[in-house]
Amino acid sequence: MVSTSGKAGRKRILAVDDAATILLRITDTLDKYYDVITVNSGMRALRYLERVKPDLILLDIRMTPKNGFDTLREIRDMKDRADIPVIMLTAMEDKDSVLEGIALGISDYILKPFAPNDLLSRIRRVLENEEQTHVQSGQNGEGTGI
Asked: What is the pTM of this model?
């Protein structure tokens, strides 16, 4: 069973990849700083997202039977989940894949194999940007009576 609550104050990251070695490497890289939940398919990711809203999703493209783009489209259609930042973590380096990810609103695109420090710094940047966006939107509506 997947835990639905993280350690106090730690951000929760959902890693979605059908390669167990990649999921292990992600966990080894991130679990000192984040609560990492791993699933090995887009279908399992969607089932997890029905119950829990992570702070960020790492998503592979090449998976079966549902690839990362199809999974992301469904995430973007989910009420209260569409705004989760997504980083594509994939071996697909063709321009069309990058452009499709951008069209689907990804926050970043990281190629495999990834350098642990690069992954950490990009996750931190995306989470900081997300936090800034929430702070700014909260301040902009305060005291306006709207």
From this structure: 0.88
